[in-house]
Amino acid sequence: MAEQACPARPAGDRLADGPTPKHAQLREILRRLAETELPPGSPIPSERELAARYGVSRLTVREAVGQLVADGLLARVRGKGTFTARARVEAQLYLESFTEDMRQRGMRPGTVVVERAERIPPPETAAALGLGPGEPAYWLVRVRTANGTPLAVERGWYHPGRLPELLEHDLSASLYALLADEYGARPDHGWQTVRADPADRATARLLGVRPGSPLLAFRRVSSAHGAPLEDMTSWYRGDLYQVTMQLDRSVPGSGPHPVHGGSR
């Protein structure tokens, strides 16, 4: 397990007997360490070192660390130790290109095309795209990266009649820019559902995480000029991505609802 020299302990951080449990006291010490003293991705001291330094059992240390892992401030890496978590990409809810979004954040976007094919989509997708039974659609699987780190896996279906020969193009950049430039069909409307999913083995391998890791899954059906173009689901790493929504008291369905989360 990786070890990191722990800063000198101020007198106010001593673990005292009293109404506040020692694991809660230690949790706050480690929280301050993770938030103010160690950069993202830094190892924290080992359980053994923390137990000796603060005069508590390793079970107490494990409980304090486990709570911070659950809060997303720390991350355990099997066989290596516990590290301060990397900052999450903050997403607002609106239609925007993943490529544009990453560049605006000063990050380097990237795309790896994993699979492209023409297939018969499932009935739900055929209905969403306005295809008849047995009509094929374009199938596209891509991994999206930020500064070289895999952030999301996108698996999408695209309408072949409205986007002819889509799979013949370079699909390693912004798909929305391609749709606008080549087809005059940049998506301008969509609906989206969000759910929590554990990573299956295939998705975990593409994202470089362990199977069962928490993911945010976004299913989006988007259209341009009233014609549906795509039915795409993207799985984002829960440790690197979060979504912020602006809330008001307007009645659902009374106006347009911008969407984001897994944009191209």
From TrEMBL:
Biological process terms in GO annotation: negative regulation of DNA-templated transcription
Entry-linked InterPro entries: Bact_HTH_transcr_reg, Chorismate_lyase_/UTRA_dom_sf, Tscrpt_reg_HTH_GntR, UTRA, WH-like_DNA-bd_sf, WH_DNA-bd_sf
Gene3D superfamilies linked to this entry: Chorismate lyase-like, Winged helix-like DNA-binding domain superfamily/Winged helix DNA-binding domain
GO MF assignments: DNA binding; DNA-binding transcription factor activity
Domain HTH gntR-type: from-to ranges: 20-87
Keyword Transcription attached: yes
Alphabetical list of Pfam families matching this protein: GntR, UTRA
Chain positions covered by the region annotation Disordered: 1-21
Keyword Metal-binding: no
Classification via PROSITE patterns: HTH_GNTR (PS50949)
Keyword tags: DNA-binding, Transcription, Transcription regulation
Name of the protein this chain belongs to: GntR family transcriptional regulator
